Amino acid sequence: MTAHPTSRPAKRDMSSVEFSGPNAPYMGSLARLFDAAQAIDQIARQVEDPGLRHADKTQVGLELCTRHAAEFFGFYICRFVMNDVSTLLDKYVKRGSEWVMA
Known about the structure:
By secondary structure, the chain is mainly alpha-helical. It has helices at 24-36, 38-47, 56-101. It starts with 23 loop residues before the first helix and ends with a helix.
């Protein structure tokens, strides 16, 4: 999962970030969603902690739960967001090309 399980990324303050444009609320929601999803990575880092290696049932359970949560996020959430961003980008390009042709 991670090369260095003890290293921790810097915490970002999402409340101070401001988005502009017609899709500003949507982009703000995505930013908050992906910021909150960092909890999965933090749990994965803690599961990889060598101090937990002695508890076999606990270790296996935590690894399975973390993997299932990460797979759900990657398979459903990221796929939905990528499709949605693709649709928004297509609309933006279409409007831009209409503006250029006019």
